[in-house]
Amino acid sequence: MGLLQKLTDGEFKTPSEVHKNLHLKNSDANFIFFSDFLISNNIQRFASLEIVDSHYFITNSFNFDVQSIIESYSSLDFWNGLIKEDNKIYYYSIQKNNINPLLQFFSKSIKDSISSILIYRFSNKKLFLICFENEIDDYKKIQNEILKIEFSNNKKQLSKKINSNNLSYFSIDFLEFAQLIIKNESNSKLYSSVALTSAICNELSNRIFIYFSNEFTKLYKVSKSEIKIIMNNQIKDLSLLNFHLNQNLKDFYNNTEYNIKIKQIFNVKNEQSFFGNI
After folding, report:
1. What is the pLDDT of residues 79-121, one digit of tens each?
2. Residue 154 burial class via C-beta count within 10 angstroms: exposed 0-12, middle 13-18, buried 19 and up
3. What percent of the chain has pLDDT over 90?
4. Which H or E run contains 168?
5. Three-state secondary-structure class, residue 201
6. Which of 38, 69, 87, 94 has the fewest other C-beta atoms within 10 Å?
7. What is the C-alpha to C-alpha distance for residues 86 and 160, in angstroms, rounded to an integer?
8. pLDDT < 50 regions, the chain
């Protein structure tokens, strides 16, 4: 169930609840879309960490908040001491009593919801951090899919049974929102505002792809900070759509002064002119 369906039903759910009610729609022998990887494996939170300014830092994520992204700025020595071999999954959990060193990187609201974590480090030293609410017994499927993840998420999901007169066109740009957050978090220990801007935009983009995931919607990330959406529905109340979107983002950055706005685009000739050269 995506955000659009939630509005139709007149109900409100948290991001985790929305995520759990979705179903895998795209699959391929050679790759799996990032959002589909999360959905099919019931992954609560995910982060990709890369080396930035000689430290590890989250560059791409889902269901992380701003504070946890900032706190991910960590030393190479810590991760090198924890992960002895590349291309191998490591499992940490409350039950195994080995998860505590990792919890320092999460905000309190996220920390309390994590029971187990999978870590995978590639040969190029990129790290995947995969978090679950419960203990997990078998992660072979996840291990097999890790190397197939396609992060672009640009999925053609729109139903073939389309009434062209019933389409709505929207644009969401996160750049201004990200810049306001960075200005407010100016005392952050992370030196690179460029890296933090990118991380914020990627987190928000991934949430949008999850929230709007249904057969009536087509989404494309047309730039580092902007997503364009076509819905096979007429949206009568854009303010309601914006309200529910920002309610869903409160756990990301709970500051009522900062809101993301979905803009509706009118007089669109066709899909190609709307999305541009993708």
Report:
1. 999 999 999 999 999 999 999 999 999 998 899 999 999 999 9
2. middle
3. 42
4. strand 168-173
5. helix
6. 87
7. 43
8. 1-2, 4-27, 156, 159-160
Quick one: tokens of 254? Answer: 């709970």
Q: Nearest-CA neighbor of 59 among 67, 70, 50?
A: 50
Helices 238-248 and 193-211, packing angle to 10 deg: 120
Residues 6+ away with beta carbon under 8 Å from 31 = 148, 149, 150
Two tokens at 55? Answer: 């430290």
How many Cβ atoms sit within 10 Å of the Cβ of residue 73?
Answer: 21
| Tens digit of each residue's pLDDT (9 = 90 or more) over 158-196 | 544 556 678 889 999 999 999 988 888 766 565 678 899
Q: β-strands 217-221, 168-173: how paired?
A: unpaired
Q: What are the helix (H) ranges across 106-251? A: 108-111, 140-146, 175-184, 193-211, 238-248
Among residues 26, 58, 31, 30, the alpha carbon closest in space to that of 45 is found at: 58
> Phi and psi (nearest 5°) for 75?
-75, 150
Query: What's the predicted TM-score (pTM) here?
Result: 0.84
Please report, as a single letter, which amino acid is at residue 75.
S
